[in-house]
Amino acid sequence: MKLRLIVLSRRIIILAVIFMLIAGLMQVSDSYAQFRWKKEIFLPGLQGKTVIIDPGHGGADPGAVSGRYQESDLNMELALALKSQLEDNGVKVKLTRNGSEGIVPKENMTYSEQWANLRKRKEFAAEQRGHLLLSIHTNSHQDPHVSGAIVFYSDEISADLAAEIQARMNTLGLKKRLAEKKNFTVIKDNPMPAVLIETGFITNEHDREMLIKSKGTVAQLIYEALDRYYREQTAPQTETAAKGG
Ligand SMILES: [Zn+2]
């Protein structure tokens, strides 16, 4: 009886040690993956990167509405056009929502629930180890003449990216604007560059027509901006080599 107990407790100890070893190994490999991801964010080259696209609003929240047009739909259509443009060029894409699937607002949300929904979108970007976060929105104004795309950024690591996208959005024939710094929840305090693109005004007929008819062109321009941004990034080792030479 005593011997049996000793054998049993030995087995338990061996199993516990094996379990702890596996847990330890998993933790090491997870922190290595975290380390590698944070390093990759600023490495040059868009190919192989993971871009998180966040089509704003959705579900019970249409966003800005103008006549029969809803912002949530325009955001989604552009997000899908951009997704295929990026994937055709070897970029991985994850969407925070696809239509009404994913992180979508429910009906009658309180202010704090709305805020939690926005937080979930940025948390998703980090969980998926995204290298870049693009939140897609469409603006609105009571004056139907107000036009133009505005790219918002919250921190210095995103300023160059915002400027690249803004410069290309300014070629679409809408009112030309400058990128703006603003602390929107989705784009602030992210480990990766993050911008919120207000692609144009849903309340302006010309902007809206362009967004509906030329989403392929808009997607192409955003892709070019990301590509240029990642060409201009300099890997730390390249910088040292350049200094050495
Ligand atoms: Zn919006």
| CATH-defined architecture | 3-Layer(aba) Sandwich
The share of residues in extended strands comes to 15-25%
Number of domains: 1
Order of helices and strands: HEEEHEEEHEEHEEHHH
Tell me, what is the CATH class?
Alpha Beta
Total count of strands: 10
Residue ranges: pLDDT <50 for 5 or more in a row? 236-245
What is the typical, i.e. mean, pLDDT? 92
What small molecules are bound in this structure? zinc ion
By CATH's scheme, which homologous superfamily applies? Zn-dependent exopeptidases
Instruction: Quote the CATH topology.
Output: Aminopeptidase
Binned, the helix content reads 40-55%
Mind summarizing the main beta sheet?
Answer: 6 strands, mixed
Overall 3D shape: elongated
Question: Could you give the topology of this structure?
Answer:
Elements: H1 2-40, E1 50-55, E2 65-66, E3 69-70, H2 71-88, E4 92-95, E5 97-98, E6 101-102, H3 111-127, E7 132-139, E8 150-153, H4 156-169, E9 180-181, E10 194-201, H5 205-213, H6 215-232, H7 236-244
Parallel strand pairs: 1-4, 1-7, 7-10, 8-9
Antiparallel strand pairs: 2-3, 5-6, 8-10
Helix pairs in contact: 2-6, 4-6
The protein binds zinc ion.
Explain what this protein looks like in three dimensions.
This protein has one domain: Zn-dependent exopeptidases (Aminopeptidase, 3-Layer(aba) Sandwich). With 245 residues, it is of the alpha/beta class. Residues 236-245 have low confidence and may be disordered. It contains 7 helices and 10 strands. The chain has helices spanning 2-40, 71-88, 111-127, 156-169, 205-213, 215-232, 236-244, and strands spanning 50-55, 65-66, 69-70, 92-95, 97-98, 101-102, 132-139, 150-153, 180-181, 194-201. Strands 4-1-7-10-8-9 form a 6-stranded mixed β-sheet, sandwiched between helices. The protein has a two-stranded antiparallel ribbon with strand order 2-3. Strands 5-6 form a two-stranded antiparallel ribbon. The relative contact order is 0.15. Bound molecules: zinc ion (ZN). Zinc ion is lined by residues 56-57, 63, 71, 137.
